[in-house]
Structures are given as structure tokens and as C-alpha cells.
Write a structure and sequence with these properties.
Layout: E1 23-28, H1 29-34, E2 38-39, E3 42-43, H2 44-55, E4 62-67, E5 77-83, E6 88-94, H3 99-105
Helix pairs in contact: 2-3
Length: 109
């Protein structure tokens, strides 16, 4: 045999993983792109949320990420989803909504 297979077969296709945070805030990049609220491939809102989360010492509690379309496309707003272990909450943020307002609306005051 000339080539050895490098991949291993696993019993389970899905295995649990530990996350360094408890909750997640997803900012819709499709909505942000429509409103020209992007810096390259990052939404400005997510970048602002990450900075504010770090400043407030909430990195172990919540993480902000960009997500693709959530199928809730509002007019002139950006969809933001708050994922917790027990629920998902979806809100629509105006183009100029500040990260402070978003965190406050999601209960991180």
C-alpha cells in the first residue's frame, strides 16, 4: 500500500464541546450589508458589541458573532438574535443603534 489513510473513523459523528462563554449574540450580516453597516466582512455592530463586552468584563458570559440570514429581514433594521441555553430572543436594531442599547435590551446592563 502506497498511501496510508490519515483520517480516523469515529463512533459518534457529533461530540460535545465546551465553550468559554454562556450566551451568544448573533448579528445578521445580510441585514447589515443591505444598510451598508459593514466594515469589510464584519458588521460594525458586532465589532462594537465585542469591544463593549470586553470592557465590561462579560467575555465569560456572552459572545458576539456575525451570522448569515436569520429569515427575519426587517425594513431598515438589523436583526440581532440572543441565544441562551433556555431560549432564543430576536430583536430588530436600527442602523444607528449603539452596542450599549443592544446589551441593555438583552439584559446586560
Amino acid at each position: 500500500m502506497l498511501f496510508k489513510r490519515r483520517t480516523k473513523t469515529h463512533e459518534d459523528a457529533v461530540t460535545p464541546a465546551e465553550s468559554p462563554w454562556q450566551n451568544c449574540i448573533g448579528v445578521c450580516s445580510k441585514c447589515a450589508r443591505k444598510l451598508k453597516a459593514m466594515d469589510g466582512d464584519k458588521t460594525r455592530l458586532r465589532v462594537g458589541l465585542k469591544s463593549l463586552i470586553a470592557l465590561r468584563g462579560l467575555k465569560k458570559q456572552v459572545r458576539a458573532v456575525d451570522v448569515t440570514c436569520l429569515d427575519v429581514c426587517p425594513e431598515n433594521s438589523i436583526t440581532v438574535a440572543h441565544f441562551t441555553k433556555s431560549s432564543i430572543r430576536v430583536v430588530n436594531a436600527e442602523k444607528d443603534a449603539t452596542p450599549e442599547k443592544i446589551l441593555q435590551a438583552l439584559g446586560y446592563s
